[in-house]
Predict the structure.
Amino acid sequence: MTAPLTPARAIALRRMTEADLTEVMQVECEAYAVPWTEGIFRDCLRANYCCLVADRAARLIGHAVMSVAAGECHILNLCVAPGHQGRGLGRQLLRRVLALARQREADTAFLEVRASNRGAIRLYQAEGFDEIGLRKGYYPAAEASATSGRSSREDAVLMARAL
């Protein structure tokens, strides 16, 4: 088991800027077989979505992206560098974006998570999210099918909670 974050290992959560995108992309590519592109992050920043980074000792080790509209928030991306997973940082990021959503008068939070990402699903359930549906073939799979050469798709679990 990995050690939880302690004050000596303090993490600063702050707004993401365009200057952070090189490091954000490093974390994104380490954590996901099918990462977001830098262009997606740029678009989120331009759209004034809530974009946060987790900074530890001047190194980015996680990030989160959330949109808020019409009383709802949608957590679009929550990512922790693989070497820092299991220490509470994902929970910290999640709680911060949910607090920001409440400040922006959202009353419901939604997210999608890969059906295979059992650790993330457990985190979201522990933080009060319930499964409300399944999006068939929502995510691109990392590898093409061996027989057809076509990319396969992975289902997403749709989750929600009241704020």
In short: Helices lie at 21-31, 38-46, 89-103, 118-126. The mean pLDDT is 91.
